[in-house]
Amino acid sequence: MGTERRPVVYDAEGGDDHERQGTVWTATSHIVAAVVGSGVLALAWTVAQLGWAVGPLVLLGFSCVTYYTSTLLANCYRYPDPVTGSVNRQYIDAVRCYLGRKSVLLCGCAQYMNLWGTLVGYTITASTSMIAVKRVNCLHRSGFGVTGCEVSGSTYMVVFGLMQLLLSQLPSLHNIAWLSVVAVATSFRYSFIRLGLCAAKWASHGDVRGTLAGAGIDAPRDKAFNVLLALGNIAFSYTFADMLIEIQDTLKSPPAENKTMKRASLYGLSMTTVFYLLLGCTGYAAFGNDAPGYAAFGNDAPGNILTGYAFYEPYWLVDIANVCIIVHLSGA
């Protein structure tokens, strides 16, 4: 008597499983930590390939599609009824219930390929940020001479991999909402720093750069490839379906988990879309069609805009942004 009764999850066989104490805000933190990742750093280049006419519309369109599919997947957490049915603890359990066992292999491969691709992207981006910290400090000491400031990324990739091995020993997602909160806080910090740097560059030349059609490329084949790559960057920047069911499995009820998850998806995607529009459009206005972040050295390859090429002063601010990227991707 006098103790609060906590909601308990029951698995498909009806047995006790684990307690869930997640709320709409912890779920939103998990979503933002997963969605706002390495893709945000290439948004200026992405918008540059699509132009002012199409770029912002594509960002909004992918946001709407992602929210719609997220609401559909949120209803698959329980089967057969989305409110009173048996719980599907993982994405693959929902596939088995709704699509049948024949679809498990195909959807499972798709899920793990997506997770593998995300891990590769996070590893490369985190190691690039580690390199950027060393490069920016080297440029500052050498008076911005490029010679001698190039660093190999292999060692830093191994370091990031070891960090992930250590973090993988933490308990399940139900017990580490704090890690997502830290990841979200650092992601907002480096996003604001990036936004401020781009806004300062934009203010320095005073005009809105870029064109309605985007970057002009002589070869149609190259233009088509860059447009498709830009669309892929945006799609990658919004994806979190491969972990939506696992996030939903942290939520307490009542209210019904699918209702809470839909609200969390709306809040999380709304926040990220506003950030994406601000970062992509401000970066494009600042750099124009040379928006990738390597433009300062004449290299128009797409990439991280905080690597120390586009911005290397104030060096301490660029260092802080890159450290925040490392912390965010470690937790994400």
Description:
This protein has 332 residues and is mostly helical. The protein has one domain (19-331): Amino acid/polyamine transporter I (Up-down Bundle). It contains ten helices and four strands; from the N terminus they run ββααββαααααααα. The protein has helices at 24-35, 43-74, 91-99, 104-141, 154-167, 177-205, 220-238, 244-248, 257-287, 315-331; strands at residues 8-10, 16-19, 78-79, 86-87. The strands form two sheets. It has a two-stranded antiparallel ribbon with strand order 1-2. A two-stranded antiparallel sheet has the order 3-4. Helix 4 (104-141) crosses helix 5 (154-167) and helix 6 (177-205) runs antiparallel to helix 10. The longest helix is centred in the middle third of the chain and has 38 residues, at 104-141. The protein is globular. The two termini are 40 Å apart. Mean pLDDT is 79; it is low at 1-16 and 293-302.
Task: Summarize the structure in short.
This protein is mainly α and 332 residues long.
